[in-house]
UniProtKB/TrEMBL annotation:
<protein>
    <submittedName>
        <fullName>MerR family transcriptional regulator</fullName>
    </submittedName>
</protein>
<dbReference type="InterPro" id="IPR009061">
    <property type="entry name" value="DNA-bd_dom_put_sf"/>
</dbReference>
<feature type="coiled-coil region">
    <location>
        <begin position="23"/>
        <end position="50"/>
    </location>
</feature>
<keyword id="KW-0175">Coiled coil</keyword>
Length: 78
């Protein structure tokens, strides 16, 4: 929430006549938080795949076995 939005929220909360404005500010903020969470979760899944991929590269090198292929990891869930 921006400083401007916080100021608007505090002003609206101080005036019971502005309950609609308070709800609107909070609803908008909540929606942005949900969008940010979805993006963070998407990024977390991608990072988790990369971590697994590079650990598997390390293991393959240590064991002199076949190297993993990123295409096998791109759409997998870990």
């Amino acid at each position: 929430m921006t400083l401007k939005e916080l100021q608007e929220l505090f002003e609206a909360q101080d005036d019971d006549a502005n309950l609609d404005k308070t709800c609107e500010i909070l609803d908008n903020h909540y929606q942005r938080v949900l969008e940010q969470l979805a993006l963070l979760e998407k990024n977390e899944r991608h990072i988790k795949r990369k971590v697994r991929f590079y650990h598997d590269i390390k293991t393959a090198k240590e064991n002199h076995s076949k190297m993993p292929n990123w295409e096998d990891y791109r759409d997998r869930e870990f």
